[in-house]
Protein: Radical SAM protein
Organism: Paenibacillus woosongensis
Amino acid sequence: MYLVYADNKGQVYDHPSMYGLARSGDMIVEILEDELIPLPEGATLVGLPSTRPVGMDPDTGEMMPVPGDVQAVGALLPQGFTRLCLPGYVKTDKEYKLPLFGYSAVVWKDGQFYVTARLSDDPEKWNPLNCDPLELKNQVKALRTKYPENRLYEHLSNCALGYECLTASNTFLNRWEGAVPVSYSCNAGCFGCISEQPDDSGFVAPQTRMNFRPRVEEIVEIMLEHLKTPESIISFGQGCEGEPSTQAKLIIEAIREVRRQTDLGYININTNAGLSDHIRGIVDAGLDLMRVSTISALDDHYNAYYKPRGYSLANVEKSLSYASDQGVYTSINYLIFPGVTDREEEIEAMIEFARRTKLRLIQLRNLNIDPESYLQLIPPAKGDIFGMKQAIEIFQQELPDVVIGSYTHVPPAELARVKVRG
C-alpha cells in the first residue's frame, strides 16, 4: 500500500518505497487491508494545499513526512460510499483551512488506486456520470420555457448547471429525488455550512444561498412536475438554502395543494427539526419522508457544531418521535468523521437516540470540513475509539431494524404512509 502524493502543480504520484498512512481524528494510523476498496467510479483525487503527506518506512516502521515540495492527496467519494479514514498528513501552514470537502485516505496498491471506504448504498443513481450534460441543458431550457415566471426553476438551473448539484439536476430530468428549496434563513449557525459562512470564519462557502421567498404556486408547480411516478421524491431542504421549516406556512399550503391533485410520489423534508411545532404542522399536512441532519446525539458536541438558535437536541428528538408516530418514514443525515463518530460515547448515545425516536434509516454522510478546525471545536474523546468500520458494524448489530445507507430511499410498501387527499 504505497503512499500517494502530488507535486506543486497537482500531478499525482505513487511513492516508490514509502507506505501510505491515514488519520483517525488527529492520530496518524496504519491502514488495514479490510478498510480498502478500489477507487470508485466517479471519485476524484485532490491535492491538499499547505500539507505534507506522512508515510511509513516499510523496513524500520518509522513514520515521517515526505521530503520535498509535495502535498498530501485525498479522495472525494461519490454518493453511496462512506470514508473510513482521513488522509495521512501534517499541515505546513497551521493557519490554513482546507476547503469544505470530505477527504478520504488513498493509496496505490496492485497497480491501481485504493481508498479507505466502504460501500454503504447503491451508487448508481447518484453517479455523476449518469447525468448527461446535453440532456440536462435541454431539460433546463424546456422547463424554464414552460414556467417563465417561476423563480425557483431559474434558481435551480444555476444549481444544476453551475454547481452540478445532482438533486437539482434530477428536478429537471424528472427522475428520482428532486429539489424544491424554499428558505433563505436558518435557525442554526452550522460550523461547516456550505451555503453561508461568516466573514471571519476562514471558510469559503462552496454554494450561494437562495435570496428570495418563493410563492406557493412556484413550489406547487415544481412538485407537480416532479411527482409523476409512484417512486418519485421531491425534497424541501437543499444545500442552497437555510432551514426549510422556517417557511412552514409555505410548505404546508404547498403540500395540501399537491396532495389535493395527486397521490403519486413521496414528499420529503431535509431539516434540522429544531422547530418542533413547525415540523408537527408539516407532518400533519401530509409529509411522507423526513431526514434530520445531525452530527451527534450528545448535547455538547451537537451544540458546538450546529450552534442552534432557540432550540435544542431535545426539540430534534421530539420532532423525530412525532413524525415516526404519525407514520412518516424517518431518517437521519448522519455527518460522520473518522476518529469522532467512532468514539465509544458517540456510538452509545446514537444507538439510544435511534431507539427512542424509532428511526428507520441512518444515512451516513461524509462531513465536509477542515479536520483541525473541527477537532478544536468539539469536546475531546472520553472513551475508546473503535474505528469507523467497527462502529458501523456495531450500529448494524445493535439496530437490526434500522437501514444503514447513504441517501433517501422510498420506504418499503408495508411502511409507506397512507396519503390522504383533500
Summary: The chain is about 30% helix and 25% strand. Residues 133-146 form the longest helix (14 residues). The mean pLDDT is 92. The longest strand covers residues 12-24.
